[in-house]
Amino acid sequence: MKILHVFKRSRKKTDGHGKSDGYFLEARFGEWGYYLLGIVMEVSMVAAFSLAALLVMIIVKAVVT
Amino acid sequence: MNLRPTLNDFRLIGWGIGRVVLSVGLIMAVPLATALICGEWNVCTDFLIGISACLIFWLGTEITCRVTLDLRVSHGLVVVSAGWLFAMVFGAIPHYLSGHFSSFLDACFDVMSGFTTTGLFLLQDLDHVSNGLNMWRHVLTYAGGQGIIVVALTFLFVRTSGALSIYLGEGKEEKLLPNVVNTARAIWMISLTYLVIGSVFLFVALKTCGMTPGRSFLHSIWLFMGSWSTGGFAPQSLNLLYYHSFTIELITMAIFVIGSLNFALHYSVWTGKHSEIWKNIEIRSFAVTALVVTFFVSLGFSKLGVYTTINEFFRKGFYIMISGHTTTGNATVYSSSLVNEFGVLALWAIVFAMAIGASAASTGGGFKNLRVGILIKSLWLDIRKMASPDSAVLSEKVHHLNDLWIDDPLARSAALIILCYIAIYFMGGLLGVAYGFSPSVAFFDSVSTGSNTGLSAGLVSPVMPVLLKVYYTLSMWVGRLEFISIFALIGMGASIVRGRKVGGS
Q: Taking a C-beta distance cutoff of 8 angstroms, is the pair B266, B344 a contact?
């Protein structure tokens, strides 16, 4: 798992010791929890963005019709 | 004056291209295994021939082109641009042998479309294609999304000096890690992690729709690969419309939006810089342009009275818009609906979104959000300078992993690439008009190919003129590689003709 090693090494550089910084997912699942948190944040971004677009659509529809 | 390339230069470039072709042969093992498992013996033969051709070519370059020189930047750029053309030709062998194409050119078009993550296809009778060939189509686009060079770097250019030059030549300007080979591996790490997660979600959704476990498994992987790579390929000719499932549309949309993000941004978020996702100029630029386009699409729909319920708007209008903006090309409407139902305003708003495209160093194409962000900030800086006293010292910065201060060279390079994209969009559009297609259709499909999107208003088909097929194939190639390595290839051609001979006067 050389690829994973690359990630872990980089992660340790990020916070100095590779310790948990208080995030539940990281504390619970270790390194993979950290990546999972990243994925959750990316999915949240998509959700927030979709909701904003829906809001735009509703406002436009209300104004035009 | 430029120096004419020596024989050693050609041998070095040939050696690099051999490695790229070998990587194409290696990834053919995946569809070969699929065909073997599914008992598709004719398809196995097609792939064995394809793999043999790649191996023979590679062996030929290893024997004839091995030199002790290091790859310089100019070599690397030519290896990338020419390597993609060779990869297309060798990748098209199984396509052509399948009997689903009317000519080798059509097969090359589809392979270039796959590698560049465009998603347009000239393949005939897609609904009855073998599992092996379908796997090859999707593996092409998945590998192309990370970059053929990234594939080659991961396995075949280890400890090769000059690896950075070929990495940069593929339109990826950022390294995730100091070592470029480790960068390639990190890109695979991100993509494979999402492959597992996304495929599991899609498998459950497809199984819930009533598909058999075997079909659900294959379709989940294919849909993931098509979406993540912003390729837009799907195993059925109706694309996402085939499934009639809101859940699948929702999952694929999340996959392709995330897939369109910069790999350096993924890496940053995954390794601790969580706030980057909100601060990054590419995300902000994407959010602004997408919301502006949403506004115009909604306005167009409301004026015409089509897709006016939230459900219809989200599944048809918003999905197509976001699919276009991320340069994916997954479709939930027929090509004819884009022309006949969307109306001029919504259609051109989507053309605008496709032209801008996704993030830099991602699987997507188009101008890229980073360049648009830099250009807007630069414009804003110029406006502020005009409104301020001459003695005022003003500055603007954008945040992309680090703070980048806007200066003339940065703005000029962004503007130059955007101009090049506009040129290929425009030429393709004019060519389509010259062949008698309406401007809306011609420009829609031209922008779609140049930005590697894959949505079509109906122009792209097996019966379109040969010149358009050739132009679109080149447009996909040029758009994906972001011009620089193409310029290097042209420059090399000019040096052969007009360059000064080394050691000569």
A: no
Give the number of other Cβ atoms within 10 Å of residue B393's Cβ: 6
The maximal CA–CA distance of chain B, rounded, in angstroms, is 76
Q: Do B254 and A46 touch (CB under 8 A)?
A: yes
Handedness of CA A45, A50, A51, A56 (dihedral sign): positive
Structure token pair of residue B314: 């989200």
In a domain, A22, yes or no: yes
From B336's Cα to the closest Cα of chain A, the distance in A is 23
A positions 20-59 inside 8 Å of B (CB): 21, 34-35, 37-39, 41-43, 45-47, 49-50, 52-54, 56-58
* Cβ–Cβ gap B294/A56 under 8 Å: yes
Closest chain A residue by Cα to residue B303? A64
Please report, for chain B, the start and end positions of each structural domain, with discontinuous segments joined by +.
1-171+483-505
Strand partners, B397: B405
Phi first, then psi: give them for residue B430, nearest 5 degrees.
Answer: -65, -40
- pLDDT at residue B499 above 70? yes
Total domains present in chain A: 1
Count A/B contacts: CB-CB distance under 8 Å: 101
Q: Is residue A1 part of a domain?
A: no
Considering only alpha carbons, which residue of chain B is nearest residue A19?
Answer: B272
- pLDDT tens for each residue of B78-107: 888 999 999 999 999 999 999 999 999 999
Would the CB atoms of A3 and B186 count as touching at under 8 Å? yes
Q: Quickly list DSSP for B169-197.
A: HTT----SSSSHHHHHHHHHHHHHHHHHH
- Contact of B61 with chain A, judged by CB distance below 8 Å, is answered with no
ipTM score for this prediction: 0.84
One-letter amino acid of B435? Y
Task: Residue A45: give the domain boundaries.
Answer: 8-64
- Measured between beta carbons, which residues in chain B are less than 8 angstroms from residue A50? 253, 314, 318
Q: pLDDT tens for residues B62-79?
A: 999 888 777 788 888 888
Q: How far is CA B320 from the centre of its chain?
A: 17
Calculate ∠ Cα B143-B147-B152, nearest 5°. 85
pLDDT digits (tens, 9 = 90+) for B379-389: 999 999 888 88
Q: What residue type is assigned to position B295 of the chain?
A: F
Contact A39 B189 (CB under 8 A): no
For residues B333 and B343, the answer to whether their CB atoms sit within 8 Å is: no
Residue B138, amino acid = H
Q: Are B290 and A53 in contact (CB < 8 Å)?
A: yes
Minimum CA–CA partner of B258 in chain A: A42
SS3 category, A2: helix
Q: Are B320 and B328 in contact (CB under 8 A)?
A: no
The whole model's pTM is what? 0.90
